[in-house]
Each structure stands twice: as C-alpha cells, then as structure tokens.
Design goal:
Pathway: Amino-acid degradation; L-histidine degradation into L-glutamate; N-formimidoyl-L-glutamate from L-histidine: step 3/3. It contains 15 helices and 15 strands. It is 37% helix and 22% strand. Bound molecules: zinc ion (ZN).
C-alpha cells in the first residue's frame, strides 16, 4: 500500500534546519517515507492520494524529557506558595517531591496508567508522536517497576512511541535517610539489574545536584548502567555547577538536561562526546529562574540543543510541548528554527532515535504533523491553541 500525501509545504528538519520543500509530496509505504520532494517530481504508482489542504508538515514532535507518570498532583502546593508559604514550610508539611513519591507508591498501576494517559493525550493532540517517560517517583524496586510498566503500557495503548528511562537516582527515599551511598548501591546491584532484565529500561538517568546525588554517586550509577549495556542521561547543572554534564559526556551520555549552570569546559566536553543539551524552559519559567543556560556557548561549540516539556507535577506541569517552543525562544532566545529542531531531530538524538525519527527523510518512519499555519515560525509564536490539522504516525492518521 503506497500512499501519496500532497498539497503541503514541508519543513523537513533535515540537518536540524527547516530545509523547506515548497509544494511538497510525501510517498509512504510500510509506515516509512519512501520518497519526499517537490510535488511535480513525485513518482507515480501510488494506491491512494491524500490532499493535505495547503498545510505545513513537520516531523512528529518528540518530547525527550518527561516525568509523565505520577500519583496525585501538586496544585495545592502551587496555591499555598502563592499564598505566601515557603518551600521549607511546604516540605515540612510533607509536600514537595516526597508527596509525589507517597502518592505514586499508593497508586495502583491502573490508576497511574489512567492519569498519565490523560496527560499524554494532551501532548498527542498538540503534535507529539514520541515521548520519553522517566520513573523516579517510586524509589524502591516495586514502585519503580510499576512506573516503568505503566510507561510500556502507554506505548501499547496510545499511538505514541514511548521510551522508558529509569530514574531511580532521582531523590533519596526516606527509608535511606542519611545513607545515600547505600541507596546508590541498592540501585546498582539490585534495582537496575532486575528492571533491565525485565526489559523495562531503555536508558538510565540520575539527578546530580546538592539536594540529590553527588557526581561520585552518579558515576556509580553510570558504571552499573554501562555494564548492563544501557545508555545514560543526566539532570545536570540545574541549580549549581557540579560538573555533571562533563561526567555525562565522559560516559557518552545521550543527553545532559537543564544546564543553566554549566561551564565552557562542560560545553566542550559535551561537544566532543556528541551529548545533546536538553533545555527545559518550563521548569525555568515555573521556578522563576534568572540564570540562563549558556546558549551562545552551546551554539559556538556546535552542541545540539533539544527542548522538552519536563512534564512533572512539581516544577513543570506542562501539557503542551509547543508552548515550550515559545518559552525557549522568549526566555532562552532560541530562534524558532532552533526551537523546532529541538523537538524534532535533536530530540530524536537525545533518545538515540535519530536514525529512525526526527526529520522527514527517505527511510525514516512516516511520523508527521500537518499544521494549519502560514510559516513554520508560527509553531513557536502562538501561545497555546490548537494548531495540528492532522497527526500521522507511521503513515496512519492518529488525530
Ligand atoms: Zn526532569
């Protein structure tokens, strides 16, 4: 079955640029792009033709950093903070990440599935066809397994490609209070090997920060992941400069994420390793941060920049990846073209999927969105709204 899609302009994102084809046609066979180019050069022999109605098409959007599976939410804390309560007061009242860990542990797998599905359907409506989901609110073997199983089930239930990342080294669970090295040891020798053996883990992540884990502790986790043949990623340099992104680069990490406090040495190390810089403007916005990630340095050294929602209940309850494009442009001064590359080709790279996804090129999967817009910059320009006219995954309409 060969289907020819036509009557659309294409921002193919080949090479991380718009790489525009005006009045394009796209031939899809077996869920993959068999041909793409100007309509007047399109090959014959299609079984079916679909008119895209003068829209713009881009690759399906890729949200390469989310914590979309969690119990409860933190809207109550959000309200308390705005009524004057401090972070410390909220934490003392059992709030913060500890409250999400509690709610996640208490939720059944089906409850977590239902709430995460509602969140992901919002992303899907907004043009997302691939999403990464991290564990990290379970912090014990059974609860981390439960979260990762939910991520796998979401990939089966929804027309989305889901990558599951084990983030057991997200925070110290209360059972291990004062014994972080023991918890890291448990992750490396029991938790990670068990979950990897069950086929639940595509990558391993950690949170390198004073209020989480030290570079030495993160390195133990990276060693364990590497021994299991799993790629690594890292939450690094969000609130202080610990050299986490250089550590990630040493382990050839797929990505280092946040990065507000990274140094030029970190940038150099990531450039050499080909580690993607994942920028998370939603958390920057919600925390009202003022320290910007070093965008010019990243550009100058040629580090690929991805943009993600960081969808999580505490610091980025984002249900639109496209809104993050605007925030990346407005807060971080990315160009709309860089921002779009950040949720397509570079996001695919941050998941190790760039051979399959992230641009409209022959041989890649036919995941694309037809947008009701006049030019690609509109994707970063509008704040919210419903812009996708069709969302297509592996050659089939999913919206
Ligand atoms: Zn995160």
């Amino acid at each position: 079955m060969k289907r020819l899609w036509l009557n659309a302009h294409a921002a193919t994102m080949r090479g991380g640029r718009y790489s525009i084809i005006e009045d394009a046609a796209l031939l899809v066979e077996g869920g993959r792009i068999a041909w793409i180019g100007p309509r007047h050069e399109a090959p014959g022999g299609a079984d079916e033709t679909v008119d895209l109605g003068g829209t713009w098409i881009t690759p399906g959007l890729i949200d390469c950093h989310t914590h979309a599976v969690f119990g409860g939410d933190r809207s109550g804390e959000f309200e308390m903070r705005l009524q004057g309560a401090s972070y410390a007061e909220i934490a003392a009242a059992g709030g913060g990440i500890a409250s999400t860990v509690r709610a996640t542990r208490e939720s059944s797998e089906d409850e977590l599935l239902a709430s995460a599905e509602r969140r992901l359907r919002n992303l899907l409506r907004d043009g997302v066809t691939t999403v990464e989901i991290k564990s990290g609110y379970g912090l014990d073997l059974a609860s981390e397994r439960k979260m990762l199983r939910v991520a796998r089930r979401l990939g089966e239930r929804l027309p989305l490609t889901v990558r599951a990342t084990c983030l057991a080294a997200h925070a110290l669970p209360s059972e291990y209070a004062g014994r972080p090295d023991d918890y890291i040891e448990h992750i490396c020798t029991e938790l990670l090997p068990a979950l990897a053996a069950e086929g639940l883990v595509d990558a391993v992540d950690a949170f390198c920060e004073h209020l989480a884990f030290s570079p030495a502790q993160v390195e133990r986790v990276f060693q364990a992941a590497t021994a299991l043949g799993l790629p690594v990623k890292l939450h690094a340099e969000q609130l202080s400069s610990l050299g986490g992104s250089s550590l990630a680069a040493r382990y050839r990490a797929l990505s280092a994420d946040h990065l507000e406090y990274m140094t030029e040495d970190d940038v150099r190390a990531m450039a050499t390793a080909g580690t993607v810089a994942v920028l998370l403007p939603g958390a920057f916005y919600l925390l009202r941060e003022t320290r910007l990630p070093p965008i010019d340095l990243l550009r100058r050294h040629g580090v690929a920049m991805a943009i993600a929602s960081d969808l999580n209940p505490g610091t980025s309850p984002a249900l639109s990846l496209r809104l993050m494009l605007n925030m990346a442009c407005t807060s971080f001064r990315l160009t709309p073209e860089e921002a779009l590359a950040g949720v397509t080709l570079h996001a695919a790279r941050a998941l190790g999927l760039d051979a399959e996804l992230g641009s409209l090129e022959v041989g890649k999967r036919a995941d694309f969105v037809a947008w009701d817009i006049q030019r690609p910059a509109e994707l970063a320009y509008w704040l919210g709204g419903d812009l996708p006219k069709r969302v297509v995954r592996q050659g089939e309409d999913v919206r």
